[in-house]
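STRUCTURE:
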């Protein structure tokens, strides 16, 4: 039998690309300090027993209490202190610290995942016209708010006292010299607007004169020929002459 060499590539479908996990506190520290991860050997040489023993677990190197019955006391240390018990307490503290850091890393990952889910839900709600008003919400889901600046406009009808006060305040401010007005710029703007209005009026007059000269019938034939939808009498004569 001959095995087919054809292959097909299937995409992920609707699933998004997984995001990379955040580094732990130790990984971030090691990266900043340039510390590289080195794999240690499983076996360790025990100088007291003079043989190779496992680094961790049962019968590990240096783990026999009978071998570690002596602890070196510093020169300025208290000779009546329980140094063996102090060593055990420090070991327990290290274990508890490692466990606390492990739980902190897990909570950090969960927080990032929940924030990502909340952001996705919020984006889905905003994408609808009602901003998720008529959609079913989960137990602790908050109401989606539209982002951006919303300008509040004054009412166009009703009490005009506020509008009058604003206008008077603006006039007083300009009259007192509190607002600097560029007179040259304002004059040029008004002059440009005047020239534009005069040109539009002149163009409108020319169009009206041309229409009055052409007449109603000529205008109809002219627009019919231009649109090429209704043929005029001259076009039919041309076709007969060509035939």
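SEQUENCE:
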């Amino acid at each position: 039998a001959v095995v087919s060499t054809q292959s097909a590539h299937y995409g992920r479908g609707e699933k998004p690309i997984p995001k990379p996990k955040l580094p732990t506190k130790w990984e971030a520290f090691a990266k900043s300090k340039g510390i590289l991860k080195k794999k240690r050997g499983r076996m360790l040489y025990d100088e007291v027993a003079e043989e190779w023993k496992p680094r961790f677990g049962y019968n590990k190197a240096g783990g026999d209490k009978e071998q570690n019955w002596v602890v070196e006391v510093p020169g300025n240390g208290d000779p009546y202190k329980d140094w063996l018990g102090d060593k055990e307490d420090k070991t327990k503290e290290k274990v508890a610290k490692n466990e606390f850091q492990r739980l902190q890393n897990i909570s950090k990952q969960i927080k990032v995942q929940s924030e990502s889910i909340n952001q996705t839900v919020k984006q889905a709600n905003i994408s609808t016209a009602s901003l998720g008003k008529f959609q079913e919400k989960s137990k602790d889901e908050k109401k989606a708010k539209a982002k951006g600046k919303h300008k509040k406009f004054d009412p166009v009808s009703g009490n005009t006292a506020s509008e009058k006060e604003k206008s008077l305040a603006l006039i007083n401010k300009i009259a007192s010299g509190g607002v600097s007005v560029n007179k040259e710029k304002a004059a040029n703007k008004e002059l440009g607007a005047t020239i534009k209005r005069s040109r539009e009026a002149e163009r409108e007059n020319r169009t009206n004169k041309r229409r009055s000269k052409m007449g109603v019938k000529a205008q109809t034939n002219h627009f019919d020929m231009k649109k090429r939808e209704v043929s005029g009498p001259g076009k039919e004569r041309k076709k007969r002459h060509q035939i």
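REMARK: Strands lie at 43-46, 51-54.
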